[in-house]
User: Fold Lycopene cyclase family protein from Streptomyces polygonati.
Amino acid sequence: MWDADVAVVGAGAAGLSLAYRLADPARPSPPTVLLVDAAPGHLRPPERTWCFWEEPDGAYDSVLTARWDRLRVHGADGRPVVARIAPFAYKMLRSADFERLVAARLDTAPRVRRVEASVEELRDDAGGALVRGVAAGGEPVVWRTRWAFDSRPPAVLPPARTTLLQHFGGWFVRSDSPVFDPAVADLMDFRTPQPARGLSFGYVLPLDERAALVEYTEFSAAVLDGAGYEAALRHYTRDVLGLAGLRVVSAEQGVIPMTDGPFPRRAGASVFRIGGAGGATRPATGYTFAAVQRQSRAIAAALAAGHDPLPPPAYPARALAMDAVLLRALDTGRVDGADFFTRLFSRVPAGRLLRFLDGRSRMAEDLSIGLRTPVLPMLRTALELPWVPRLPARSRPAAPHPAPQEEESGT
Assistant:
């Protein structure tokens, strides 16, 4: 009756993570899986970098680009805060390495079928799900599966009281001399020009003493163009970090919606949304990858137990409520974003703060952290938030592609 037990639409972080869990050779009776990837072209994202924190011995440790046990935050005044983050490690994973690891498992999984197609319709049908689209060769395709999980980013964002964009440009750089400290990752460096509303910061992830990923990030209402990110990165590397003679090996750009709009995880009796489309992005930080892993593990466990595989909420309701207050406070300019995050990292133990940012802290910890924020502006914002209307949905923003970089091209 079914072409597969499970259809996974989209082969980004969420889709591949779920397929990877379902194809685990240790599962006693794995389901049949149809993984539908977009055909080569504009629907496939360029190579990208994911960063997240978790305990050691994670599922993808064998293909990490780098990891750090210490994080550093620079306040706007230049003073650094350095924290050891045990029991966590901060990890960098490049999409190409992740995709190779997943492909190695899927290629040897007899119950997984990978296809390329542009999916035009995904809906409930006859007690299961119908997937309809056009294959890479142009022929129409239709599949019927018991369950379907849609990981594609929504074309339109949900109605929200506040929507900011986390947008960034990054350079993988090399230097002829040892200028980076590979033992410490700079998570937020607020010695950048701050927008009137929102915030900006630099981000330095050293790969070794001569190589690093350097990014410029903003939380604001609109993205920059390619020239804007390049100018910001030049200012940050030369004028703030004091680094000259860096060579840009490759570049990346991205944009992540930061919104208090709800992302429904169920799209039908047999159709679900996962990843950013299913609420895995933390509104106040933009981090997604760790929540994607929690969702995929829970879905795989539910299917193995024969339960309804509705993805669990990525974050507890109180975490989302606090995020809504922070987004509104940043957007109204009531809270200085650079000062807000610097305060947190300087006054809250790192392990507790990372649990909080991951939505895994206890209520007592949340209250203690809240007392270390600007209490009056946050309280005023919390009191007015129920009266703020949710604005109509808008199209999901697209990040401009970075300018092509020649290998070892000079800055």
